Structure formats: structure tokens, C-alpha cells
Amino acid sequence: MPAKAGDRHRQGQSGPSGGKAVPPRPAKAVSKKRDEDVSTEAGEGLDEWAAAKTLVKPPDQLELTEAELKEEFTRILTANNPHAPQNIVRYSFKKRAYKPISYVDQMAIHFSLNGNMILKDSDEGRRQKIRLSTAVEKASVETSAGTSEEAEIKDEESTGDTQAAGEEETEESGTAEVAEAAEAEEPPPPRVKEQKLANQFNFIERASGTLNNPMRERACQSEPIPCKNFSTTAYQWEIYDAYVEELQKIERSKEKEKSKAQIAKREEEKKKGRKLTSLESQSDDIMKISKAAKIMERMVNQNTFDDIAQDFKYFEDASDEYRDQQGTLLPLWKFQYDKTKRLAVTAISWNPKYKDLFAVGYGSYDFMKQGQGMLLLYTMKNPSFPEYVFSSESGIMCLDFHYDHSYLVAVGFYDGNVAIYNLKKATSQPSYKSSAKSGKHTEPVWQNELVHTDVIKLSVEGTTVQGPEGLQLQTLGCGTSFDFHKKIDYLFLVGTEEGKIYKCSKCYSSQFLDVFEAHHMAVDSVSWNPYHLKVFISCSSDWTVKIWDHTIKTPMFIYDLNSAVGDVAWAPYSSTVFAAVTTDGKAHVFDLSINKYEALCTQLVVAKKKNKITHIQFNPVYPVVIIGDERGHVTSLKLSPNLRRMPKEKKGQEVKKGPEVEIAKLDKLLNLVREPESKAEK
Amino acid sequence: MAEVEETLKRIQAHRGVVATIVVNAEGIPIRTTLDNSTTVQYAGLLHQLTMKARSTVRDIDPQNDLTFLRIRSKKHEIMVAPDKEYLLIVIQNPCE
């Protein structure tokens, strides 16, 4: 406080004088002026002194010249604080430099005094108020007439009160007692005390507030849009699929337009007729898995018959090298179906399109026991169950596939009917069937061939009937087998029960071109050589197999097989290889280019001796033959390498393949045979 | 319909076949010869694997498609034949 007072004094002096002038000088000037004032005042008062005009100078006053004394000093009155610093510099982080601050606070505090006012409502304020009120009460009580005892008590209380400053409880109890003792006077004084004290300006604070409306939250929410998480990966094939679908849609719409333009219904019906496979019913879920089930069955079979599959594909009998020229037949799969256990295999044929599919016809050769027949189609890929099963009332005697439309199978029955089965359709009934009206045979149909669209049937009674046209050829005997020439369309051979072979032509309906006195017993099978145009083979129950040139009446080769020969077949890969099966269960494979007189392989194929082999067929592609027997079994066998040997070429020459080579091969052989007999002639 | 049923029965009766499961497009088994928990497990896992395999095949060539999937393990062989909407799973013990 004293320091501040000193400040005040100093500042009070310099304030009016102006802040910018140098302090000591104006101070001196002021003091000087004051002195002058004083001196002039003193001069007026005391004339004698004034006349002298001598100034009273303090001893340490600055000596100044007259000019200097007369010098005028301007004083500017500003509101600036002279003590405020003018050159404050602060570091600016933005500019990374020290920057002078332009504005400086100019407030100068002249006087400050800490007050000792206490807020009325605070604790201390209340305490003091109560203390004051009790003091007033004491005073009022003391003035009123009261007992000395009470006064003493009060005195004591008051002394107690003064001694113990903050004991409110005693005060209160005291006041309560006082209130009880002196009855009437209590309420007014406290009320008076609590009256609002107006301040010196008569200012009373008054406040009012508006009514605050209670806040109420009103919210509205729309229903959330149902969200679904979807995630996928965009692959190239998904894009491709989308495009393909679009394309199909466009095509379908185009088709619909076309069909509308023409007669709609008929067109659609036709199209439906041509559609592949069975119509799937939409309601059946399990039908959709048919394809997968099929593949799966084949795979399961492949697993089970894994070794056989491996053999079929890769096994080549190495021991053939040591066996001279002999070969073997390796048994592969065995096909059987329980419903055909009592039936004999009467016909086998490979499908021209699908090289693993073959058809087997079941019936009975026994004249006395005739029952129902079955047509089964097996595939090598599934040895345990047939692909297609057709049953018929009468035993099947023969069957053939259509060359172009490989889904059509022509079947000849024992009762003389002929039927064509359409494999594309789901039904188990034939598509076409001849009946008594359409000129069917009355005797069993022994062989048929599906040539183009005609079904040519051969029946026992000796007529060859050609399809719907009904061309009939009368033969003297009863036909048992026939074969069409591969290249020459109209030419075909017919073998009879008597052992004769007739060469016939489609053009001549009543006469045959030639007759061969072939065998002593019924001719079981005739077959043209697949390569050589003139050669054919025949086999019969008289134990022989004969090879002919159709221009020559006598056979080229004769083989005696010690047992009735059931069937003979040329190999598709060579013009000199053929196989024959006999009723004693053996299969014989010959290769004329290697051994003209003996079979390269004679093997017992069927297990039980009582079983007779009825048919044999070569697979057009694979080195496999299938053999059907009387018990309804079909066995597949693989030909060992020796049986498939191609003639070795001389070094340097290209390996020629193709029909010409085969023809040449056979020709060579035939010439050897023919020379002693007749002129060498092609 | 009966044909397919018969085929499935034949497969199940074949030598070495342990189980047959038919799974739909979402991986839910609709037909099985195993107990429920194992079936669900097989169905879920193989469904994913088949999807992945199919995606792989088609990614390489979109015109190609998966026809069969075989997984051979020490104990048995799992074969999966995918279809447009279904999956046929067969577990077989290959006969050695």
C-alpha cells in the first residue's frame, strides 16, 4: 500500500505534464513553475519581497540560460499510458519470427483497494447477519424490563457468545429461550432485519423471466428400407454366361416370331418331335439329377472295375513276343442282367456312332422253348447295368443299328414281326412295328439290316422282304443269314438252311445272280470282307468256316473248327483277320497274312462247358471283341498284340495304312491260293 | 423319375460305396444315406470346393465347364458330379 501511494504521487505529478517529455526536466520545470507561482503569490502578499524580484532557488537547481528558460515546451495530453511498454515483441509460430505487437494495453491503474464486502447469501454473510440480529435482540431485551437472572443468563450467554464466536447452536437456543421468555416481541425484529437493504442508488434488482415452455421431442421415422447383403465375385465366366443367356433369349424370341408367322402349332409340334432325350417333368426335382447320376454310376463302376479299365486301356500282353505268333484274348468286362439269365444272346451289334455302346438281343434258339425277348444296350463304361432296356413279347432274333441315325435300332422277332426302336424316346415300346396287316412274316425273322431307311428282313420261309415296299425274293430254301455288300449297294448274299449261299441283287426280285454250294448244314453267318470287294466269309454248323471270292465257285480257304461254328466276323482293322466262335465255348482268331492254316488264338472263353457261344462282334475302334452266349452273358475280350499285327514295312518305306493296303494284302494271299486253281486274275 | 431313383439305389448298393448325398444349389442336403451331422459337413465343404473348382475351370475358359470332381484320400474316394442345380456326392472305398 505505501509503495502504491508513492507511485500515485509520482504519477499524479507526471500525468498532467505529458508522458513524452523527459520526466526530470518537466518535473523540474513544474517545480520551478510552482515555485514561481508560490513566489508570485508570496510576492503579492508581501510587496516588499516582490519588488526585489529575486528568486529563491534551491541549492541544487539546474543552472539554465535565459534562452533556455524561455524555451517553450509543448505538452500533449494523451490517454496513453507512458509507462506502458511500446516495444513488446512476441514470437509468432506462424511466421517463425519475433513480431512486434502493435496494440499494447494502455490501462494504468491509479488506485486499487481490496474491499471487504461479503455476499449476503454466503455462509459468512449469514453468520454475520445472525450475529447482528442477536446483538440487536440482546440490546432490546436489555432495555426492556426483565429479571436480573435472565439478564445474567443473557450476559453469560452473551459472554459465552463473544467467547465462542461461531457457536450458532447456543445462540439459537438462547434466542429460542429468549423467544419463549419474552413472548410478544420476537417476530417483528427479525422481519425488520430481513428487509431488503437498498443501496445508495436505490437500486433494487428485479428480474423476471418468460415462461419456458417445456420442451417435448417429437420425432418421426420412416420405415427402414429392407436391406439385404449381397456379395459375389465377378468372374469372366459369369459375364460370358450372361451374354449367352441374352443370345438365347433373342433367338427364342426370333423363333417365336417365326412360328407365329407360319402355322404355329404344327411347327412347334414338329420341333418337339425332333428334340433330344426325354421331356423332363418340371415338378420332379429328382429328375434333374439324372445326368449327374448317370455319370456318377459310371465313375463308381470305373472305381470298382478299375483294374479292368486299366487293362482295357493300356495293357498289352508282353508275353506275346515269346509266343511265336500266337495271341491271346484277355477277358475284360462281363455284362449280365438278371432278367436275361434264361435267355440266349441272339444278336449283338455295335453302335456306329458311340464306339462304346452295343446292343444285345435276347431270345431263344430253342424251338420248343419260346418266351419273351429283350433288347439291352450296354456301354463299356458301365458294366453293371444296361443303358437301355426294352422288353418284348417275342424273342428277338436279330438286330441292327441304322448307319446314319444311330438311335434307331431295327429288331426282328421270332414271331415274324419287325420293330424299330427309337433310343431317343423314353418309351420302352418300339416306334414302328409291323403287324399282320403290313405283310409281316409268319416265320421268325433271322436277320435284318437297316440299310438307309429300309428294313430288309430275312425270314425262315425263304423270303427276303424289303421294308415298306414289300419286295420279295423267293428262294428255294429257308434263309438264315444275309449280308449286304459294303460298297455295291444292290448286291447281297443270303445263306440258307441247306448250306447254300445265294448272291442276289436288289434289282432282280425273282432271280438270284449266283449260288454257292457252301456247306453241308445251315449257313449260320455270311459276311463280306470290309476291305476287299470280292471276298466273303461263311460259317456253318458243319464245323467249317469258308472264305470265298464271289467270282469263284469254290472257297479260297476252309477251316475246320471241330465244333459247330456259331458266328464269324471280320476284323475292322485288317482284311486278313477274322474271328469265329464255336458251340464248345471257344473263340478262334485267324490272321491269314501270318498263318493261313491255323488259328492264331484258340481260347476257351466261356466258363461252363454247357454254355454255347452264339455271337461275336469286333469293336470298330478298340481292340475288343464281345461274345454272347446262351446264358445271356456277354463277355468282352481284348485282343493281344499278336492278333493285331500290321505287316512290317521295309526300312525306309512309309507305313502305309488304309484300305488299299489291306486289299493288296489280301489279294496277295488270294493269288497264292488261286494260282494252282485258276488264272491269276483280279 | 423311377429311373433316376433306381440309378441312385444301384449306386448306393454298389460294391464299396459308403454314402450317397444329393445337395441342392445352396449347399443344403436334400437326400442322404448318412447321419445328419456328417451329411451337413460334407455338403457344406464339398459345395464350396465344387464352386471353387468350377470357377477355376470356367475362368480359364468360359466355354468350358466342370463335369466331375474326384478327391482320392487315403481312406476313400469322394466323387462329386455337379449339375445345374444339384450336386451328387458319392463316397466310395475303391476296391484294391
Automatic annotation (TrEMBL), chain A:
Region of interest called Disordered, as start-end residue ranges on this chain: 1-46, 140-192, 254-279
Ranges annotated as biased composition (Acidic residues): 149-159, 166-186
Keywords of this entry: Cell projection, Cytoplasm, Cytoskeleton, Dynein, Microtubule, Motor protein, Repeat, WD repeat
WD repeat intervals: 516-549
SMART domains from the UniProt entry: WD40
Regions annotated as coiled coil: none
Assembly and oligomerization: Consists of at least two heavy chains and a number of intermediate and light chains. Interacts with BICD2. Interacts with CFAP45 and CFAP52. Interacts with CFAP53.
General function of this protein: Part of the dynein complex of respiratory cilia.
Name of protein: Dynein axonemal intermediate chain 1
Lineage: Eukaryota, Metazoa, Chordata, Craniata, Vertebrata
From TrEMBL, chain B:
Coiled-coil blocks: none
Superkingdom of the organism of origin: Eukaryota
Gene3D superfamilies: Dynein light chain 2a, cytoplasmic
SUPFAM superfamilies xref list: Roadblock/LC7 domain (SSF103196)
GO process terms (BP): microtubule-based movement
Protein localization: Cytoplasm, Cytoskeleton
Transmembrane portions of the chain: none
GO terms assigned for molecular function: dynein intermediate chain binding
Keywords recorded for this protein, A-Z: Cytoplasm, Cytoskeleton, Dynein, Microtubule, Motor protein, Transport
Chief place of localization: cytoplasm
Span of domain Roadblock/LAMTOR2: 4-92
Family matches, as InterPro entries: DYNLRB1/2, Roadblock/LAMTOR2_dom
Recorded GO CC terms: cytoplasm; cytoplasmic dynein complex; microtubule
PANTHER family hit by this protein: DYNEIN LIGHT CHAIN ROADBLOCK
General function of this protein: Acts as one of several non-catalytic accessory components of the cytoplasmic dynein 1 complex that are thought to be involved in linking dynein to cargos and to adapter proteins that regulate dynein function. Cytoplasmic dynein 1 acts as a motor for the intracellular retrograde motility of vesicles and organelles along microtubules.
Family: Belongs to the GAMAD family.
Protein name as it appears in the record: Dynein light chain roadblock
Organism: Aquila chrysaetos chrysaetos
Gene field: DYNLRB2
